[in-house]
Amino acid sequence: MSGSQSEEEMAAAWGAEAEAGEGDGDAAVPQRVLNQAEIDSLMGFDAEPGDGDNRSGMQRIISSGLVSYERLPMLEIVFDRLVRIMSTSLRNFTSDNVEVGIDNILSLRFGDYLNSIPLPAMLAVFKAEEWDNYGLMVVDSAMIYSIVDVLLGGRRGTAAMRIEGRPYTTIERTLVERLIQVVLSDLSLSFDPLCPVTFRFERLEVNPRFATISRLSNAAVLARMRVDMEDRGGRVDLLLPYATLEPVRELLLQQFMGEKFGRDSIWETHLAEELWNTDIDLDVVLDEQPMRLSDVMAFQPGSRIVLNTTIGGTVQLRCGPVTLFEGQVGRRKNRLAVRIEREVLRPGAGER
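Above: the chain's sequence. Below: its structure in token form.
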């Protein structure tokens, strides 16, 4: 049977073979081995591009790992600000013409990124002091050799020499560590308009397993940056787990700097003025008595409740369930009157 046969034809052929096997009585049912094309057809891997949502169940299971996380608009602005600051600071750091750009900002699982890091590379673990959590910066091999070549006086117009298959030397690690300190300082400056935060360098690793700062299944935000120094350069990746950004999540959800989610100062002023003209009900509590439910159910028209409040006694004035004032009971003409004596301060309210 060729691989181009449809699933219906394959099912019909298997049915015919099964019936033939039943007719043979004790004869063994013939076994057939599927070729690769038939397996791909059953699993749905032979679907043409652009088929939309016509995916098999297996494809849905595989793609379930690609989870879409919430977008953080303000974080994108922070990274744009980081690019501008880094362009200036790296020019001063290298005394060379440096251009920094962002390739993309995406959300992914921490474990997926850790497995995709091209080695050799240097992985810097840093801590956000105020947020009490960690982030990861990855400097690729091209960037390492480029920064070493620039800082040690390499001539322009010559590509940095790469020697693969050997561990990084102490000089290379020290120079890259200085680069990381510059980038972390710029990252702190980028977050300053939102909130003050200090990113402190912790350690430098070359094995991704030793740079695990979060559970492999946890979500993280990845910013891929490209650094060009004329004919040299490389890439720097910044990875911030969502758990690290949780303390400032509300700030990062803003659409623009200083957004107050619909706050309008003109409307606030108008609302405050109108509140002074609002009518409210003020209740005077002359007396409160605990009574049994049976006594309350026995009330009839004409039943009397004796109030223990007398002229000159103290009563409470309430707005709904909130006690606002205490006053003294008196009489004005033929009506009971209450004179407010003092304001009742609510718990947590200061003296006025």
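The beta strands are 99-109, 121-128, 133-140, 199-205, 219-229, 232-241, 283-285, 314-319, 322-332, 335-343.
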